[in-house]
Amino acid sequence: MRLDQTTLELHSRGRGSYDITGEVAACVSSAGVVTGLCQVFLQHTSASLMLCENADPQVRVDLETFMADLAPDGDRRLAHRTEGPDDMPAHIRAILTGASVQVPVAQGRLALGTWQGIYLWEHRTGAYRRRAVVTVWGE
Amino acid sequence: MRLDQTTLELHSRGRGSYDITGEVAACVSSAGVVTGLCQVFLQHTSASLMLCENADPQVRVDLETFMADLAPDGDRRLAHRTEGPDDMPAHIRAILTGASVQVPVAQGRLALGTWQGIYLWEHRTGAYRRRAVVTVWGE
Amino acid sequence: MRLDQTTLELHSRGRGSYDITGEVAACVSSAGVVTGLCQVFLQHTSASLMLCENADPQVRVDLETFMADLAPDGDRRLAHRTEGPDDMPAHIRAILTGASVQVPVAQGRLALGTWQGIYLWEHRTGAYRRRAVVTVWGE
Fold first, then answer.
1. Per-residue pLDDT at C99
2. Which of A38, A125, B33, B87 is the Cys-Cys partner for B138 at CB 3.0 to 4.6 Å?
3. For chain C, how far is it from start to end, CA to CA, in angstroms?
4. What is the structure's pLDDT at C91?
């Protein structure tokens, strides 16, 4: 069994989703694992990680539309506003969508479906540096 | 440490949830792992996997009711419609509920709670073939 | 490779979230794993586990407010009511937020971000005993 762990420094440019499949795939390659698993863990609570359709970018635009209605910025029901009107909605979005993704490794590569990509989903309106820990283990 | 990986071919018959606990349990048995973990990963973005109450089927009916109101088919806010009015709502449902489940293995079996089952949740209205990768590792 | 598995007995005191970071961290310490992963799995379908901001308790109050509007108790659309008006909303909340968390282990400790805590999120209004299986593996 092999185990490899790397920290990725990611840079968001405001609210939206960013394809990080390539960065994660590179960690799998350098780990030398043929069959196993890869976990990506985001060390933040106002951004998240998601597996999403990677063919039509409109899908991710529609996800923003959906979330903007579900957890609107400046929502008067929410009292945690010290960091701005987008902060508490960002926490809500992050909890609904998750801080980690786990993808099998097969034949030395991420065993993603044809239309699956791994995305950092920034929920704050500003630009942030985000850290993700990638752990790969297997044979 | 042992590690075993299998791909399950699942067949949905339209929107709804399908108990796959038996298929996953069979992978654990054949892996010969006594203590460890089992991951099930769905290679799709318009269906998901969930752990759900397995006693009263009404729970899963109510989940459909809830989701139908939260992310309704044909929602005019959403522009990704090339594959039909149920496609973008299916992506939303999948992202809110997740593409993988991870269950501990103890005493050679899935360490599920008494009322927990593993379900494929098909979010498209049509019937689809869905692939899930099951990875089991441990001692 | 080492692998260690422990069951935690948790006690909720009604709806709300409870910091269990210390209990999970103790499992990591006793496992003697330096680099690897830790999984916490809840054996229930009406409570969940979440990673949440641990600085301002108002965040978790706002999460309750959000969920109370999203999946209100006694919702007339929902028919699974034999265990009370809070039961089906609890299942919905649990499915939206997840039964497990996976956190990397680095330098012998949980590699959480500065503001991340691990919480048991009780969705039922009553007090319950909840069981969580903690599995730690790595080098």
1. 98
2. B33
3. 5
4. 98
Q: Which fold has domain C15-126?
A: Jelly Rolls (2.60.120)
Q: How many alpha carbons lie under 13 Å from residue B50 in its C-beta half-sphere?
A: 29
Distance from CA of C97 to the nearest CA of B (A): 8
Q: For residue A7, count other CB atoms closer than 10 A to its CB.
A: 14
Q: Do C135 and B36 touch (CB under 8 A)?
A: yes
Whether domain B2-138 has CATH 2.60.120.460: yes
Q: Do the Cβ atoms of C53 and A41 come within 8 Å?
A: no
Query: B5 vs A62: CB contact, 8 Å cut-off?
Result: no
What backbone phi and psi angles, to 5 degrees, belong to B124? -80, 155
Q: Using pLDDT thresholds of 50, 70 and 90, give the confidence band for residue C129.
A: very high
DSSP string, chain B: -EEEEEEEEEE--SSEEEE-HHHHHHHHHHHT-SSEEEEEEE--SSEEEEEEE-S-THHHHHHHHHHHHHS-TT-TT----TT-TTHHHHHHHHHHH-SEEEEEEETTEE---TTEEEEEEE-SSS--EEEEEEEEEE-
From chain C, pick out residues whose CB is under 8 angstroms from the CB of B60: none
Interface contacts (A, B; CB < 8 Å): 86
pLDDT digits (tens, 9 = 90+) for B28-37: 999 999 999 9
Judged by CB atoms closer than 8 Å, whether chains meet at C36 and A137 is answered as: yes
The ipTM (two decimal places) reads 0.97
Which residues make Cβ contacts (< 8 Å) with residue A14, sequence separation at least 6? A122, A124, A125, A126, A127
- Looking at beta carbons, which residues of chain B come within 8 Å of A102? 39, 41, 100, 102
Taking CB atoms and an 8 Å cutoff, what residues of chain A touch C31? none
